[in-house]
Amino acid sequence: MSTMKEAAITGLSCSMCAAGLEKTLQARAGLESCRINFATGRIRFPAEREQEVCAVVAESEPGVRLKDTKEQANPHASSEREWRQAWRLILAALLFAALLAGDEAWDRQGLQYLSWGLALAGWLAAGWGVIVAAVRNLLHGRVFDENFLMTLATLGAFAVGHLPEAVGVMLFYHLGELVQDSAVQSSRNAITSLARVIPETSRRITPEGVSLCASDKIGPGEILEVWPGERVSHDGILETDEAWLDTSALTGESRPRKFERGMEMQAGYLVTETKVHIRATRLLKNSAVARIMALVEEATQRKAKTERFMTRFAAVYTPLVVFSAVALAVLPPLLIAGASFEDWLFRALVFLVISCPCALVVSIPLGYFAGIGAASRHGILVKGGTVLDKLAKVRAIAFDKTGTITDGKFQVQRVTPGPGMDTEMVLALAGALEANSNHPIAAAIRAGGGRVLPAIEDVREIRGRGVMGRLADGRRVLLGSESFLQEECGIQPGAGAGVPGSLHLALGRAWAGSIEIDDAVRNTAHKAVKEVRELGVRTVALYSGDQARRTMLVGTSLQMDEIRGELLPEDKLHALETLMQANPGGTTVFVGDGINDAPVLRRADVGIAMGGLGSDAAIEAADAVLVQDEPLLVARGIWIARATRRVVWQNIVFALSFKAVFLLLGGLGLASLWEAVIADVGVALAALANAMRLVWSPRLSGARLNQA
Question: Assuming Cys at both sites, which of 86, 311, 432, 673 could form a disulfide with 453, CB separation 3.0 to 4.6 Å?
Answer without folding.
Answer: 432
